[in-house]
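Chapter summary example: a protein plus nickel (II) ion.
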Amino acid sequence: MAKRNIVKNGDDVLRKKCRDVTVFDDKLWALLDDMYETMQEANGVGLAAPQVGILRKVVVIDVGDENGKIELINPVIVSMKGKQRDLEGCLSVPDLWGYVVRPEKVKVKALNRLGKEFEIEGEGLLARALCHEVDHLSGVMFIDKAEELVTGDQLEDKK
Ligand code: NI
């Protein structure tokens, strides 16, 4: 496994649409492993392939709950329920957070690293992470949806 560079906001690659994954080979598995390592080292809870410069529909998530590591290939949100508004950040947007309204619960259909279809349901933080990462695959970032953006310093002041 190897850590990859995280692309920062302003880079075009974060604004492009990703293509479906069609080949489930060791190159994909290396990407998934690298993305997970990169996310963990950066203390993130989710990472999408465009954030490491790859325009494919690949996502890793780990919000520290019982699901552990979640790998999503070609994910699609199939249902949403309720609403939550909370602070959200992104490893590609350092030192900026924003209040984003997301569904409270979502169901996502995806393929695993072997190409087998599965569904995952998330609520709360996991629902937020699922929506945030799926957005990345179509070039959408949380700063587009945030109602209010705050810096780390401003967050400290609010405490
Ligand atoms: Ni992000």
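Key point: Strands lie at 46-48, 58-61, 70-81, 84-90, 93-102, 105-111, 117-123, 148-151.
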